[in-house]
Structures are given as C-alpha cells and as structure tokens.
Amino acid sequence: MLCPLHQAARPDEPVNDTPAPAPDTERRHRGRHVLPNTWQLCTSRTIEGRYDFSEFTEHDVKRVCGLVIVAMKRYRVQCAGLVLMSNHWHSLVKAPLARSISDFNRYVKAGIAKMVRAKRGGTGAIWDGRFHNLNLLDGASSLEKLRYLCEHAVRDGLVADPAQWPLANCIKALRGDLRIEGLARSRRGSGADAAFVPVYGRLTPLDGWATDSQGYRRVMNAMIDDIIEEYATQRTRARRAYEAAVAEAMAEGREPPRVSPQARGELVNRVEDQTFVPQHPKRSAYRACFMARGEDRAVRLREAMAQRRRDWGAYEVALHRLLTRPCEAVPELPVTCQWPTALSAAKGEPFAWASFMDIVHPGAAPGSDPPPAAAG
C-alpha cells in the first residue's frame, strides 16, 4: 500500500507531503525522504519546548561542537551551518546516503541528551520525537536557510550580533576560514573523571563556492552584516514608535502602554533556567519535505514529488517482498528513503567511515583537518 501524500496549495511554497498516519494501531515511523547530495535543513525540538540547553557553559558548547565534528567525520556528512538554541537545534547538512543524515542527527542528539541528564539528573527523553528534514532543491533555498540559521538569536531579540549568542553556532566559522573546533570525550575515564581531547573540523561551502573560498567568505560576511543592520533598524523603529505612543498617552493623561521589550526596541534577557517551559513554545508552521526558489520552482517541485512517489512505492513493494519471502536476496533500495538499520546492513551500506580513534587524532583519517599551528 502506497503512502498517501498531501498536495501543495501553492507552487512557490515548500511542499508538504508528509504521509498520513497509518490507520492501524501500530505506530509507524514517518516516511522520511532524503535526496542524496542535497542540502537538508534538519530540525529537532525539546519536549514541551523546555529550555534544556539554557544553562550550558562554554565547556558544554565546545562539547556540542565536538559531537558535530565527530559525527561529520564518522558518517561522512557535510555541514554548512548549525545553531543550538535554548530548546531546539538546526543544522544544514548533506550526505550521499539517506541513512548518514539520520546517523548524524542521532549521534549529536544522543550526546546532547546525555549532557542534559548529567547536569539535571533524571531519566527519560529530552527531544520531542525524531528530527524533521527539508530538502533544499536549489542554491537560493540553501542560502535562505543558512541565513535563517544565522539570524536566529538576533530575530528573537536576544542579541544584537549573532556572534554574541553563547550557545553553539557557526558565525565565527563563516566569518573566517570555516574551521570549527570542539572537545570529544576520550575513551579513558568516565563520569566526572572523563578526559576530553580537542577535535577539529571544517564547514562545507554551499554549492558553487567550493573553489572560491575568498568569495564565499565575502558573501557570508555581507550576509551577517546585513542581518545585524536589518534588525538594528527594526529595533530603532520599534523604539521610536513606543516613545511616540508613550508621549501621546501622557499628553492625554493615560497610562503608558505596557508592551514587551521587543516592542520597545530592547533586547530580551535570555532565560537561563533549564527547567523553564514557555507558555507558547515555538513550532514550525508546516511540515514540508521540499523547498525551491526561482522561476522554474514549480517544475522542480513537481519532479521531486513524482520521484518521491516512485521511491516510496518501491519501498512498500520491497518491504512486502521481504515479509512474504524473507529467504530471497535484499531488493534494490531507493537511495532517497531511509531504510531500517537491519536492511541497510543487509544491503551492505557502511555504518561509519572513520573510527573514533582516527577522528580524535587529527590527520589519521582521510579528510580530517590538522590542528592549527602554534603561534610564534
């Protein structure tokens, strides 16, 4: 039985084609669709929007970056940007295998969850379900979502410069040479006695910029400067409007209006309580699968939708074959579908391309970055 799909209402919007829930009582995983070698915006949120990461220290932030670096090298995933907010996480990644994106997110999310439990204690889940991915079908969409990552803390009125955000982010790397560094837990010791070793990685430029590092740096710096200027202008306008409203109220003998700090053009104090649960947690407006920009976006979205239907049709047929004739060879797997781990192993898909020891010793693994040279 094929997974039913929802049609998009407008061709210029991201396509929402999440399969409808199965009618039976058994819970089925959502059919995640990952195009190979295509940038994916991956998103995960905490349960109830709880601010589980708000108390992270500088050491914790380096550990988060270390998780990202190890996952990038272990599963051969390219990362163009990332941001960790107080209650959710975004990354812009791509990989040749659909499973690699899932492995990357699982590794990072599991590591962050362990950090939260070590700080707060208790047991149970931290994340609100599996991550959601959005296939970005062109360069304009990728650049738009990279800007979306960079402006997160500024848009929410928490900082004036995205580089001032204290949790893990990619601003410093994008302004520089794309190098990121972090800490990875060593195999020696455990708990409070665990040792950490430095690990180094590098962000991947968006498509079309791989051979022009200087040009990419100029574009990224211009984008970040534009973010700072845009939201500074918005705060100035809000402050002037609020001052005018206060002056008008006082002239009429009324109480000044009570509005939020953002409406007054002020920055918001960051909540640093990891048990805090917002009254209205932030949610995505839609559950999209594809996003495209440009004049031919409707054509590319229709082609992506058609390919998705074909792939998930083949997926359902292959699962039926394996259930009814388990002794036969594993059928050909659609490269865009995330298959169960057992089927991926039977197909021979590699679980990881680099061991942990290769990663924590820079230069040992292919593609790893050497540590920076000592000054002087």
Give the helices and strands, then pairings.
Layout: E1 40-45, H1 58-75, E2 78-84, E3 88-94, H2 98-120, E4 132-136, H3 139-150, H4 152-155, H5 171-175, E5 179-185, E6 196-202, H6 213-251, E7 290-291, H7 297-324, H8 341-347, H9 356-360
Parallel strand pairs: 4-7
Antiparallel strand pairs: 1-3, 1-4, 2-3, 5-6
Helix pairs in contact: 1-2
What can you tell me about this protein's structure?
The chain is an alpha+beta fold and 376 residues long. The chain has a domain at 40-229 and 272-299 and 350-360: Alpha-Beta Plaits (2-Layer Sandwich). The protein is built from nine helices and seven strands; from the N terminus they run βαββαβαααββαβααα. The protein has helices at residues 58-75, 98-120, 139-150, 152-155, 171-175, 213-251, 297-324, 341-347, 356-360; strands at residues 40-45, 78-84, 88-94, 132-136, 179-185, 196-202, 290-291. The strands form two sheets. A five-stranded mixed beta sheet has the order 2-3-1-4-7, sandwiched between helices. Helix 1 runs antiparallel to helix 2. It is globular and about 85 Å long. The model is unreliable at 1-13, 15-29, 364-368 and 370-376 (pLDDT under 50).
Q: Regions with pLDDT < 50 over 5+ consecutive residues? A: 1-13, 15-29, 364-368, 370-376
Straight-line N-to-C gap: 66 Å
Give helix % range: 25-40%
CATH superfamily of the domain at 40-229 and 272-299 and 350-360: Transposase IS200-like
Give the overall form. Answer: globular
Q: In the CATH classification, which architecture of the domain at 40-229 and 272-299 and 350-360 applies?
A: 2-Layer Sandwich
Number of strand segments: 7
The helix/strand class is: alpha+beta
**Rg:** 23 Å
Instruction: Give me the number of helical elements.
Output: 9
Which strand order do you get reading across the main beta sheet? 2-3-1-4-7
- Under CATH, the topology of the domain at 40-229 and 272-299 and 350-360 can be stated as Alpha-Beta Plaits
